[in-house]
Write a structure and sequence with these properties.
The protein has 303 residues and is mainly beta. It folds into two domains: 131 residues, Trypsin-like serine proteases (Thrombin, subunit H, Beta Barrel); 113 residues, Thrombin, subunit H (Beta Barrel). It has three helices and 15 strands. The strands form two sheets. Strands 1, 2, 9, 10, 11, 12, 13, 14 and 15 form a nine-stranded mixed beta sheet that branches. Strands 3-4-5-8-7-6 form a six-stranded antiparallel barrel. Strand 13 and strand 14 form a beta hairpin.
Length: 303
C-alpha cells in the first residue's frame, strides 16, 4: 500500500501520480521555476490551509508560546494572491536581502498569481504602523524538488526588491558540515494552526523541541526519512508544529545567543501535536552548497 503523508500546508489535493505531475508541470509554466524533478512512487496527500481569517486563535500553537517582538528577526510569513483574494500561506527565513528560504510544497497552489513575503512582523493581526513590517513581492522561485516522496523540500524565493535590514528584519545563518544535532534541544517557530482543526495564530509562536535520531524517527512511523531530513519530537506534552507552519525554521541557539537554522518544516505524520511522534524537516546542511550557489554568497554559519 502506498504511504500517505500530510504536508503542513496545501490547497490543491492531488490523489494520483498523474495529478501530482500535472500540478508540478503547471507550476513550472506559471512561476518560471528553474530546477525541476518529479520521480518516485509514493502518493502525497496535501492538506488545506484555512482561508484568510478576520480573527485569529488567541490560544497557543499546539503547546507553544508567543514570541517576543524582534526575538526572531529572520522569520517571515508568506501570503498568496489568487483570484479570490489574499491568503496566509507559510513561513520562511531571510537568507540575504534578496533571498528567502522556505519549503517547496508551500508554493504548489492551484490558481496562485503572486507570492508576497512580509518581514519584520510577529503579529499578523496588527496594523502595519503598529510594528516594523514590510511586504515584498516574490520575483522568482527556485527549487530542486522530488514531489512524490517529499525529498528536497526546500525552495528559494528571490524578491523583486531587496529587504532593508533593521532591528526587526535580519538574516539567519545556516548549518553546514556533519553535525546531526541528535538529542539536542531546538526551537520551532510559526504562525500555523493552533490545533488540528483550529485557526492559524495571529502572533508568531515558539516551541522548544528535541531532535531525535533519524532512526528513531523512522521507527516511530516516518518511513521516508533520509539523511537529508531532520526530525523533531515533543516527549511529554501535546505540542508540535501544524498546518501553516510549513517553510518555517528549526533553529538552535548558539553560545553568542544568535541562531543557526538546521531545518525547514516539511510534513507531519499524524494529528498535529501528537505526543512522542516525530514531525519531519528538510535538513539544511544537506542543501547549503546548492543554496549558496543560488544566492551567490555564503550563508552558512561561521565557526
Amino acid at each position: 500500500m502506498l504511504g500517505v503523508y500530510n504536508n503542513l500546508v496545501g490547497h490543491y489535493q492531488p490523489r494520483t501520480i498523474t495529478e501530482i505531475m500535472s500540478l508540478h508541470l503547471l507550476m513550472c509554466v506559471c512561476l518560471g521555476v528553474l530546477v525541476k524533478e518529479v520521480t518516485s512512487e509514493t502518493v502525497i496527500s496535501a492538506l488545506e490551509v484555512p482561508e484568510e481569517q478576520t480573527k485569529f486563535d488567541a490560544h497557543r500553537i499546539v503547546g507553544g508560546t508567543d514570541a517576543e517582538p524582534m526575538e526572531f528577526p529572520f522569520a517571515v510569513n508568506m501570503q498568496i494572491i489568487t483570484s479570490s483574494g489574499k491568503k496566509f500561506l507559510c513561513g520562511g527565513t531571510v537568507l540575504t536581502p534578496k533571498y528567502i528560504l522556505t519549503a517547496v510544497h508551500c508554493i504548489k497552489y492551484d490558481g496562485m498569481k503572486t507570492v508576497q513575503v512580509t518581514a519584520g512582523s510577529f503579529d499578523r493581526g496588527a496594523k502595519k504602523n503598529d510594528q516594523i513590517q514590510k511586504s515584498y513581492v516574490v520575483n522568482t522561485i527556485i527549487e530542486n524538488y522530488n514531489a512524490t516522496v517529499m525529498a528536497n523540500d526546500v525552495a528559494i524565493l528571490q524578491l523583486a526588491k531587496p529587504l532593508k535590514y533593521n532591528d526587526a528584519i535580519q538574516s539567519i545563518c545556516l548549518a553546514s558540515g556533519n553535525e546531526k544535532y541528535e538529542n539536542k534541544n531546538a526551537t520551532v517557530i510559526g504562525w500555523g494552526k493552533t490545533t488540528q482543526d483550529g485557526k492559524t495564530s495571529g502572533k508568531l509562536q515558539k516551541l522548544n523541541v528535541e531532535v531525535p535520531s533519524n532512526q528513531e524517527c523512522i521507527d516511530k512511523g516516518a518511513n521516508s526519512v533520509t539523511d537529508s531530513n531532520i526530525c523533531i519530537i515533543v516527549r511529554n506534552n501535546t505540542a508540535g508544529v501544524c498546518f501553516g507552519d510549513s517553510g518555517g525554521p528549526l533553529v538552535v541557539k548558539k553560545p553568542d545567543d544568535s541562531f543557526v537554522q538546521i531545518g525547514v518544516a516539511s510534513y507531519v505524520i499524524a494529528t498535529c501535536g501528537t505526543q512522542n511522534l516525530p514531525s519531519v524537516y528538510a535538513r539544511v546542511s544537506s542543501f547549503v552548497d546548492w543554496i549558496e550557489k543560488v544566492v551567490g554568497e555564503s550563508v552558512r554559519c561561521k565557526n
